[in-house]
Write a sequence for this structure.
C-alpha cells in the first residue's frame, strides 16, 4: 500500500518509445519505484499531486482526474470494493489541509507521449528555463513571493498549452438558445424532460412509439448511452430517430469506451445530424456490465474534461489539437449530479467544476428524499451556483415493490427512505403497487414544483414511458411552451426571465 494514496487499480504506464539511454532508463525505473512507494504513481507523466492533496488520482479505477464518480461511498470504491475511493481520500485530506478550493481547477486528460517517462528532470529543466523562482532561500526570507512562484510553477506543469484549465466560470459565448430545451428553460416555467432507453434490437419502431407518448408532455427526452456498460442501439442513432419523429433528444455521451478523438468526432457528428442537447457523462465501469468484462482501463477522459473540450469546440471553434472548426457546433451542454453520492459540500465542488467547465443544465439522480435534496441545493447556493445552471431534479416513478428495493439497495448514490419502500411493500398486487408508485411520484412532484432554485424535473420512467402523460396531467406541471426555435429568435435578449422556475 503506498504511503499517501490508495493502492493503484492498474499497473504503471510504460513509455511508448524505448529510445532513451541506459542511465536515463535506470533513472526512470528509480523514479517509478520511489513514486510508486509514496503515491501509488502510475507514471502518467502528467502529475497533478499539487492539486489533489498529494494523493494520486490515477489510482482511481476510472482514472478520474477531476473528482469522484456517482457511485463512490466513504467505505469503498464502487469498482473495486477491496480499496477505498481515491477521491474520498483526496477530499478528506484536502479538507484537513484547508485546500478544498484548490480542487476546482479543471485538470487535463493525460498526454500519452509523456506517459511512462521520468518527470523529475523535466520539472527541473522547466524550472531552469523559466528563469524565475521558486528559490529555496525565498521560502525563509520572502514567503509570499515563494508561495506565488511555487503555485505558478506547478500550474505551468499541470496545465499544458493545449488545455489551459482553470477554476473560473466560463459562461456560454452566445445569446440565442441553441435548442428547444434551452429555449423552454429560459421561459422560467417548470420544464420536464423524459428518458427513453434505446432498443436492444435494430428497429427504431419502439422509439417512434415512445416518442408519440412523450412528445406533447416533455421538452426533450434523454437517450442513454450503453448504460451499465451494456450494449444497445447507440444514443446518436436513437436521437436522430427521435428528431425525425418530431421531438428533441438529449443525447447522452459518455467517456467510457471513447478516446478524446472519438468524443470530438461523435459530438461533431451529432451536431451535423441536428442534435443540440448533449449530456456529458463519465460512464459506468465495465465491471457493472454483463460478462465477459472488457479490459479494465477504458477511460481516456472524464465527464468534466468532455464538457470543457466541447464548450471550447463550440465557443472557440477549435479542436483539442488546435485545428480550427469552420462551422462550430451549437451545443447545449449538460451534466449529471448525484445529490446523495458524497456529502453535499463535496458534491457542490464537483457541480461547481462542471458548471465552470461549461455545463448549462444538470440532471440529477432520482430524488426520493426531498430534505436531502434541499441540503444539496443549499450547498450549491452557498457556492453561488444556482443562477449559473438549470437544474432538473431526477424523478423515477416506482412501478413495483421490487423496483423500490432495487433502488434502495443496489443503486449507488440513490437514497430511498424506508417509509417509501414500506408503502410499496404494503400496496398489494401489481396494480396496487403501480398506483402507489404513481401516488409517491405525484407527492414528490408537488414538492419539487415548490422548491426554489430548480428549473424542472427529469422524469426517468424507463420501460414505463406510458405513465409520463398521466404524471404530467395530474401534477399540473406545464407542458413545453416553445415548439420552435423561430419563436424565440425574435425575442430581444435581456428580456428573458431569471433562471428560477415558476411552478405554473
Ligand atoms: S468510487 Fe469512483 S471515483 Fe472513487 S475510486 Fe472508485 S471509480 Fe474512482
Amino acid at each position: 500500500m503506498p504511503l499517501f494514496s490508495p493502492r493503484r487499480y492498474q499497473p504503471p504506464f510504460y513509455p511508448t518509445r524505448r529510445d532513451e539511454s541506459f542511465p536515463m532508463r535506470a533513472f526512470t525505473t528509480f523514479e517509478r519505484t520511489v513514486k510508486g512507494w509514496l503515491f501509488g504513481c502510475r507514471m502518467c507523466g502528467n502529475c497533478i499531486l499539487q492539486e489533489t492533496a498529494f494523493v494520486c488520482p490515477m489510482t482511481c479505477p476510472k482514472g478520474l482526474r477531476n473528482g469522484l464518480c456517482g457511485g463512490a461511498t466513504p467505505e469503498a470504491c464502487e469498482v473495486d470494493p477491496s480499496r477505498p475511493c481515491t477521491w474520498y481520500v483526496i477530499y478528506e485530506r484536502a479538507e484537513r489541509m484547508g485546500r478544498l478550493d484548490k480542487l476546482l481547477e479543471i485538470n487535463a486528460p493525460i498526454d500519452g507521449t509523456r506517459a511512462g517517462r521520468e518527470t523529475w528532470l523535466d520539472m527541473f529543466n522547466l524550472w531552469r528555463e523559466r528563469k524565475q523562482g521558486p528559490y529555496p532561500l525565498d521560502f525563509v526570507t520572502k514567503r509570499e513571493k515563494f508561495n506565488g512562484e511555487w503555485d505558478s510553477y506547478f500550474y505551468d506543469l499541470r496545465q499544458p498549452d493545449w488545455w489551459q484549465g482553470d477554476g473560473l466560470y466560463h459562461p456560454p459565448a452566445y445569446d440565442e438558445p441553441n435548442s428547444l430545451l434551452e429555449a423552454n428553460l429560459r421561459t422560467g416555467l417548470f420544464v420536464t424532460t423524459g428518458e427513453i432507453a434505446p432498443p436492444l434490437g435494430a428497429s427504431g419502431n419502439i422509439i417512434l412509439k415512445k416518442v408519440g407518448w412523450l412528445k406533447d408532455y416533455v421538452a426533450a427526452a434523454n437517450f442513454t448511452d450503453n448504460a451499465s456498460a451494456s450494449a444497445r442501439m447507440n444514443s446518436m442513432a436513437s436521437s436522430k430517430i427521435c428528431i425525425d419523429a418530431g421531438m428533441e433528444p438529449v443525447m447522452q455521451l459518455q467517456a467510457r469506451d471513447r478516446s478524446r478523438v472519438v468524443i470530438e468526432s461523435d459530438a461533431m457528428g451529432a451536431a451535423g445530424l441536428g442534435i443540440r442537447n448533449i449530456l456529458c457523462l463519465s460512464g459506468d465501469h465495465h465491471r457493472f456490465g454483463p460478462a465477459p468484462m472488457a479490459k479494465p482501463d477504458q477511460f481516456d477522459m472524464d465527464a468534466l474534461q468532455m464538457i470543457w473540450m466541447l464548450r471550447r469546440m463550440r465557443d472557440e471553434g477549435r479542436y483539442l489539437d488546435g485545428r480550427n472548426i469552420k462551422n462550430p457546433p451549437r451545443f447545449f451542454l449538460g451534466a449529471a449530479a448525484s445529490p446523495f453520492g458524497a456529502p453535499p459540500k463535496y458534491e457542490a465542488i464537483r457541480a461547481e467544476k462542471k458548471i465552470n467547465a461549461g455545463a448549462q443544465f444538470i440532471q440529477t439522480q432520482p430524488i426520493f428524499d426531498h430534505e436531502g435534496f434541499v441540503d444539496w441545493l443549499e450547498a450549491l447556493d452557498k457556492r453561488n451556483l444556482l443562477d449559473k445552471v438549470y437544474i432538473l431534479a431526477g424523478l423515477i416513478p416506482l412501478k413495483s415493490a421490487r423496483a423500490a428495493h432495487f433502488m434502495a439497495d443496489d443503486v449507488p448514490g440513490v437514497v430511498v427512505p424506508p417509509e417509501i419502500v414500506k408503502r410499496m411493500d404494503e400496496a398489494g398486487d401489481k396494480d396496487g403497487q403501480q398506483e402507489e408508485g404513481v401516488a409517491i411520484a405525484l407527492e414528490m412532484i408537488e414538492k419539487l414544483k415548490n422548491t426554489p432554485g430548480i428549473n424542472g424535473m427529469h422524469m426517468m420512467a424507463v420501460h414505463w414511458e406510458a405513465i409520463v402523460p398521466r404524471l404530467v396531467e395530474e401534477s399540473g406541471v406545464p407542458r413545453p411552451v416553445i415548439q420552435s426555435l423561430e419563436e424565440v429568435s425574435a425575442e430581444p435578449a435581456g428580456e428573458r426571465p431569471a433562471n428560477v422556475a415558476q411552478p405554473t
